[in-house]
Amino acid sequence: MRGDGLPGIESLRKTTDGGYLAGGSYYWLRQIQPFLTKIRPNGSVEWTRGYLHQIDEGTVQRVVASSDGGSFISTSNTDHLDDHHQAEYSTLMKVDENGNLLWNKRFEEGTGRYKIQAVIATNDGGCIFTFNINDASASSDRSFVIRFDAGGNTIWQKSIDGGPATFLGYRELLLDGNDLYLGINAHWGSEYVKVEKWNAATGNFIWGRAIGAGNPGIVDVQGVYKIKDTLYMGFITRDPASIWGWESKLHFVKFLPDGRLFDGFQLRNPAFLQSFLQTQINGDVSPYIAKTNDDAFIIAQQIRAATDFGVGVVKISPQGTVIWSRNFKNLTRHAVSGIVADGDNILIIGTNQILQPISTETRRDHSFIMKLNKNGDVIENATGNCSNETLAAAIDPFQIAPPDNDQPPVFGNGGVI
């Protein structure tokens, strides 16, 4: 998807006709506006809709299919009030199958910065979503979990208030029948992550398990998944003390149905905790994870080799063994923004960042959709209107770092909080 308007795809979902619904942002006439594009199965564009035309900046964060044929769209927005002040807030919209707006909710209060983190559909046409507020005036964070019905009315709402820089909020959601699982980032003296189980009908807490570390730098939940009766949580640690700068590692932990961690949960004993994708990263480059139909995990991440950027893709088993890995080189600064399991295939979405000829300022020039089969091979003509010439380059194995042997960070069995 190319154009002078600098479109950027941030989220993608499959549609019932075999096509896709892509959401992102589009720069036009000094405004950044959120948009939604319907892509046919052959890759051609069926329609495009723009939203929130009155705002200064708006970007689609998530596009989620509703159970009644429509979609939920979350956006992050900014209005410039004057030269020194701006308002930051989020919106949650519901659209029908043709992209027509059904309702729109705006989340804003005082000086807080609002951000919707996760949205998941319920079987009644509604949704459950989380959003966090960073209130500069109160020097604290607040996090909310809300369930809406199909019309956007509140069924239940839960909130947690934290002290100064103590709570970073709910990041990921998984709905399994009436069981709601939440992946949480938190900071109470030392970084840790947490998984909780709630009753989806009432929003009542059932159990929680915290996983802490001394101080690995930054800990971020990347996803919560379920395979049979086992719950998985993926999270990354970033160590600022590395000689390579910010060193990123991705971990998976397993939980029994009652919330107990599997035995041997330590980085030194990688039977139940796998560490890989250890690489030098440039800025905030996070891996994206999707669970496949054959109960495996696909991880995609922007990687850097010398002065160029590429896309690394890894498929691993639930036991943490590498099934295959790919390093797509010579992609000219392609940045990954998401990954979607599409039947037996895999869709990787992102943007191609190109430098201005007279400036070092990076801009987003066009978006890409790369389609792989279950073995990691590129499917021909799968990028639709995007050029796939760069995909003809040699595909090298993506190097997976083995577990550290020199006193890595040790995560202990966290107590129930």
Features of the shown structure:
four-stranded antiparallel sheet, mainly beta
Give your account of this protein's structure.
The chain is mainly β and 417 residues long. The protein has a domain at 1-117. It has strands at 8-14, 20-28, 31-39, 45-50, 57-65, 71-80, 86-95, 101-107, 112-121, 127-135, 140-148, 154-161, 167-176, 179-187, 191-199, 205-212, 218-227, 230-239, 247-255, 276-280, 288-291, 297-305, 308-316, 322-328, 334-342, 345-355, 362-372, 395-396. It has a five-stranded antiparallel sheet, with no helix packed on it. A four-stranded antiparallel sheet has the order 1-2-3-4, with no helix packed on it. Strands 5-6-7-8 form a four-stranded antiparallel sheet, with no helix packed on it. Strand 18 and strand 19 form a beta hairpin. The radius of gyration is 21 Å and the shape is globular. Mean pLDDT is 71; it is low at 1-6, 263-284, 356-364 and 380-417.
